């Protein structure tokens, strides 16, 4: 199990029940740290947990409150994914650090991967806030799909985002490299980030109408993305915010299942 999948799995373990329109106290499966129960006031329209217009994020001494994290996550889903806050559902907040995942899941790594994980564990890894929005109909489903946003608590950067929609998956299997390139560049342009164009790679085949994309930002951090072939919209991305060394299993996956974009 690679680092990215482990992080998603560990967050899923923390899901608990509760009441709508609140951020819940929950016991995190790895470090058992409880989060505060807070109510997020709706400031715009009738959507749950919707942020105010032109909301400016203020990070005080590297700390972001649960309320602020939910507002940031809501704004990211609206600005980057075009989602309507009315459909988000209930917000749940957890705080974690990659070090916790290294320790908790060490036994699940292969021997080769474990050696690299030990090197990664020596790094100064960031404290992050994970915000999940769970729809009312999915509250009692521990592994239900949800919108999930990860925020670097020190910098306020949105370093990972996964959007869930009910739209039908595309049956398209042909990958248009030009559209992939445009989708990646335009997506990060919204975040005022630049992509190194010659670093883009795409999965050789589509899966359920989606493809995976790899690229590097100009600051050197690598990114993994998921793009829909229906309209070439980005449904998820994750920045390697801790600049972790890729695991051997990841490197093998990249070599065998990805190709360079055929775009000049």
TrEMBL record:
Key words of the record: Signal
Span of the signal peptide: 1-21
Protein name: FTP domain-containing protein
Biological source species: Brevibacillus fluminis
């Amino acid at each position: 199990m690679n680092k990215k999948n482990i992080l998603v799995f560990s967050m899923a373990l923390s899901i608990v029940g509760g009441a709508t329109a609140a951020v819940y106290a929950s016991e995190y499966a790895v470090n058992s740290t409880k989060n505060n129960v807070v109510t997020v006031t709706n400031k715009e329209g009738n959507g749950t947990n919707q942020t105010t217009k032109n909301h400016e994020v203020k990070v005080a001494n590297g700390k972001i409150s649960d309320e602020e994290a939910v507002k940031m996550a809501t704004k990211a889903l609206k600005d980057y994914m075009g989602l309507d806050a009315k459909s988000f559902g209930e917000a749940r907040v957890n705080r974690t650090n990659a070090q916790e995942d290294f320790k908790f899941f060490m036994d699940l790594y292969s021997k080769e991967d474990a050696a690299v994980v030990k090197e990664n564990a020596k790094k100064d890894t960031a404290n992050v806030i994970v915000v999940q929005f769970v729809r009312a109909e999915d509250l009692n489903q521990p592994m239900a799909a949800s919108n999930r946003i990860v925020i670097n608590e020190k910098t306020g950067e949105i370093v990972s985002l996964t959007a869930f929609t009910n739209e039908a998956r595309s049956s398209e299997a042909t990958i248009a490299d030009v559209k992939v390139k445009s989708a990646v560049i335009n997506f990060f342009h919204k975040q005022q980030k630049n992509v190194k164009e010659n670093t883009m790679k795409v999965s050789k085949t589509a899966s359920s109408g989606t493809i995976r994309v790899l690229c590097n930002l100009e600051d050197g951090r690598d990114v993994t993305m998921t793009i829909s072939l229906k309209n070439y919209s980005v449904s998820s991305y994750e920045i390697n915010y801790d600049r972790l060394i890729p695991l051997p299993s990841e490197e093998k996956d990249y070599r065998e299942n990805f190709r360079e974009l055929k775009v000049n």
